[in-house]
Amino acid sequence: IDAFVIKEKRLAWGKDLDDLQVIDPMDKKDEMPDNSSFVYSRSKSYGGGLIAARDFVDFSHVTIHEGGKVYVASYHSIELNHVPHVEHVVRGFNYESGTIAKEEENGTKV
Fold it and tell me: CA-CA-CA-CA torsion for 39, 20, 83, 88, nearest 10 degrees?
């Protein structure tokens, strides 16, 4: 589960990512549900620049179930005025989507 929620561990297995940051919600702090955050991520470019780097600004909500053995994350892209576009990076858009990870009884992580 830590591989999804700890930046260094996520970057270690997410070889496509160049950067990952939790963004200060600034004026939206009072509206944020528990276990939610704004996340900035940037992928690397590929093919000698044929595929441009992409960045995303997402609202993310995480719930953990079964005593920490099941991790469910949902996210979708948002616009935040205090996160400017980066030159030579394409701003991507994620529709509502998510990730589910479960640690099996034998310790295998799926």
Answer: -140
Between CA 61 and CA 39 the distance in angstroms is 10
Prediction pTM value: 0.78
Could you tell me the two tokens for 42?
Answer: 């940037």
Tell me how far apart the alpha carbons of residues 70 and 50 are, in angstroms, rounded to a whole number: 38
Structure tokens at 64: 């953990």
Q: For the chain, what's the residue count?
A: 110
**Residues 64, 71: contact at Cβ < 8 Å?**
yes
Distance CA 91, CA 99 (A): 21
Q: What CA–CA distance (Å, rounded) separates 72 from 56?
A: 19
**Which residue type occupies 28?**
K
pLDDT tens profile 16-58:
888 888 887 766 667 777 788 888 999 999 998 899 999 999 9
Answer yes or no: are the C-beta atoms of 72 and 63 closer than 8 Å: yes
